[in-house]
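// run 5 | inverse folding | seed 20
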């Protein structure tokens, strides 16, 4: 459950229960036996409020998890279709200018060193402006036409300490012995525009609004995961 939503529910529930207890306590009319029992219980055992909140939280988390399972099953083909003769175990929605994506890259690198059989595929989801859009398009071109250079490009983009724009993207391509002018021209193709539009639609359908986001066989992580979360994410449906 979203932390802000948790807080709102807690505040509302607390206010309601305490308000009820206070109203009963201040009532000029004699309390019925039931009302008196409610008042005494709430005043003597305020932890009931926390217990109710915890129950609501658990139920919400179970419902959200099941909703994610349903979404993954609905869009399984788009998420996990074979790619370069490999079927990904995890897909990651990325924006190369996203600071949290760059932090997540360090986690995924460490995770894959420990789990070399797990395949993680990037889905280009540029949301942070023109530089992000260009970087995503370049990545799509390289992945299609120069797949042997894609991992190095991905690492270079994720390892950049400054914002990716035309100038430093060109320098990275040149450093990888790729023709930057040609690739930048190719990146403007409507083919890649359509792919990015489709990726945005897929993210929207999965209730993904930011980056990074990771999708596994039965779970979605919206945000920065740790190694344990990635391991759990890769586990198949049981």
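// decoded
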């Amino acid at each position: 459950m979203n932390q802000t939503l948790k807080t709102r529910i807690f505040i509302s529930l607390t206010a309601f229960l305490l308000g009820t207890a206070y109203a009963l306590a201040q009532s000029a009319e004699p309390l019925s036996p039931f009302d008196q029992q409610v008042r005494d219980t709430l005043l003597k055992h305020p932890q009931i409020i926390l217990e109710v909140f915890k129950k609501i939280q658990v139920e919400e988390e179970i419902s959200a998890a099941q909703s994610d399972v349903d979404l993954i099953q609905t869009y399984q083909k788009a998420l996990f279709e074979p790619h370069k003769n490999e079927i990904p175990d995890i897909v990651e929605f990325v924006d190369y200018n996203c600071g949290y994506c760059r932090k997540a890259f360090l986690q995924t690198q460490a995770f894959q060193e420990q789990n070399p059989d797990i395949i993680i595929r990037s889905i280009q989801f540029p949301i942070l402006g023109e530089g992000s859009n260009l970087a995503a398009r370049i990545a799509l071109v390289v992945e299609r036409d120069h797949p042997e250079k894609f991992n190095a490009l991905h690492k270079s983009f994720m390892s950049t300490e400054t914002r990716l724009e035309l100038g430093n993207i060109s320098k990275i391509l040149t450093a990888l012995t790729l023709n930057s002018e040609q690739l930048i021209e190719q990146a403007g193709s409507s083919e890649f525009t359509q792919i990015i539009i489709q990726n945005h639609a897929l993210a929207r359908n999965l209730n993904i609004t930011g980056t990074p986001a990771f999708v596994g066989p039965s779970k979605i992580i919206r945000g920065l995961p740790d190694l344990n979360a990635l391991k759990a994410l890769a586990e198949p449906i049981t």
